[in-house]
Amino acid sequence: MTLLGIAQIAIYFAILLVITKPVGVFLYRVFEGEHTFLHPIFRPVERLIYKLGGIHEDEEHSWVRYSACMVSLSVFSFLFVYVLQRLQGHLPLNPMRFSTPQAPQGATPMTPDLAFNTAVSFMTNTNWQSYSPDTTVSYLTQMAALAVQNFISAAVGIAVAVAMVRGFARHTAKTIGNFWVDVTRCTLYILLPICILSTLFFVWQGSIQNFKGPVTAQTLEGASQTIEQGPLASQLSIKMLGTNGGGYFNANSSHPYENPTPLANLLQMLLIFSLGAGLTYMFGKMVRDTRQGWAIFAAMAVMFLVGTFICYWAEQRGNPMLANMGIESTYTGSQPGGNMEGKEVRFGNPMTALFATITTDASCGAVIGMHDSFTPIGGLVPLFNIQTDEVIFGGVGAGLYSMLIYVVVAVFIGGLMVGRTPEYVGKKIEQKEVKMAIIAVLATSLCILGFTAVSSVAPFAKDHYWNPPGPATANLNNGGAHGFSEILYTYSSGAGNNGSAFAGINANTPWYNLTIGIDMLIARFLFIIPALAIAGSLAAKKLIPTTSGTLPTHGSLFVVLLIGTVVIVGALTYFPALSLGPIVEHFQMLNGKLF
Questions:
Q1: Handedness of CA 28, 31, 35, 41 (dihedral sign)
Q2: Alpha carbons 230 and 591: distance in angstroms, whole number
Q3: Taking the model in full, what pTM does it have?
């Protein structure tokens, strides 16, 4: 590692730390219904939305009704996106370079399995893409379906987090807020204003925002290259702020249109973490003890920094078998220049490792380097980040409510240690809360490990024509341990609502499209609904006084306990699978075997 690389990471974290409190205060004021500087602009629009939608602003929902509203919006979103993708070949704003008699304007309708996968993906805030977006979807689909879902799925995640926080903050209450009000306020006062400003910034830096058709350019070698155009910058902003991650181009944020400058790269990384970090402070404000919020922030920060520096160290060291350009046969030393395969050369190893850690700590999935080309340990970090249920700052809202699930588990373990009923922010954590937390944690692991196991051995066709028949492993670019890691990462990414991939896998087949879609659905809703059930249960409880036997949950001891809970649960659950993938691959690399 270099001093400059360490300094870049430190500067990023310092900026994140500085903005956490003001962002958290603003979030608190928005969701508590207090006046903000944006109210003169957006309050009339908010009232109009309530009037047109028949929403009673002062009416609140029980956790059951809140969940039902969330599910109903998700179902509508899925159906809308699915239908639009299936009809896009016959709709306007489709100036793609590929045309057929069936779709004379350009992009053809998606196959049913790919449309299902994509609709589920954007509805669940996963944004997994089994296709090349710049050549597969029309401008209308990009804007009306995918970009809109980037806003809606992000707002849903934040609304769920706020509802869960209300469960901890309220007492003897039967409601946890109004879902429609929370989603509306999140979109109008938080997501939309920041995205407008960041879109203008990205255009200034060099991102495109137009409705032009593709252009042809001559390369230095004399060949011709077709370059797609379109409404990119507006989707780029919400892709990052909403921790969606679905790129406009197949190369995602390594494409110069999506990430034109180092300054744009820095803003993208800040957008990914800004709301997740701010929500921790909002939590402290709402439970009337900001130390609780800072404790959660500290746990997230420690895991984030440890992961970043492990990934950076591994990629900067590279393959030690290539030390001294292959002259040295032992595994001492480092690869000259580090492992630059699959890296964005403008940013190098430090920023690529930082970006990879950020995007997998959050449920974002945007990339500036191909994780498939990372060293085994470098690839292990983003993989394990996702498998922690995205609790390290995490996706917008998802990071906080996932971490609060682990808080319930941590205080339960702490209660067992001291031999008394566990407590957190003045609430007893009892049987129902612990059961719901365990259901949420087990749901994701069941999806990840179950689908990975089946896809590793079952004989499924490798293409849409079911010809020739063969195992799902035939869709891998690599064999052995690395090929297994590609499958494991795929289902981890789907269950973690992340969307990034070990890009060596070809997932655009009926088997992968359907199973990844199911993977995303189960993990999304079997995590959110138990979280809301916990919120409803806690909101109805009475506050209990703090005693000398109460475990303090705002100090360094609890931070260590919380980190240990996340890491140990993840390690116990996934260590056998990781041993078959990146861990064994690391030792094979040291013995000169690559995949």
A1: positive
A2: 47
A3: 0.90
